[in-house]
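Backbone shapes recur. Consider a single case.
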Amino acid sequence: MEVMMYYIIGAIIIWMIFRKLTAPKVRNISGVELKELLKEKKGHHFIDVRTSGEFNSNKVKGFKNIPLQSIKSKLDKLPKEDTIVLMCASGSRSMSAARILDKAGYKNLINVRGGISRMA
């Protein structure tokens, strides 16, 4: 039984290291920092990955809606050399989108930490 526990703990540690090593290289910003970025606009694509219903009920000016479920099919609309700013309701779906974009070769990724719920 004790040996089995060591295997389980070892597997968890390996999984945590793997997740850390394969995590996308994403810069996390606050809602305040986002407001500054929205002023710049040039070279940035602001993507809201919430569902279209969520997006339509509470839009943030400057953001385009590409729901997480359809992000893979819209990659041709996002230039790889530009900075992609991702946002959702809480920050978890936008991080999932960042993983997808990272695997597709996008390098300039920004996530709005806490999503729209943390906008000040």
The chain has one domain: 25-118. The two ends are 51 Å apart (CA to CA).
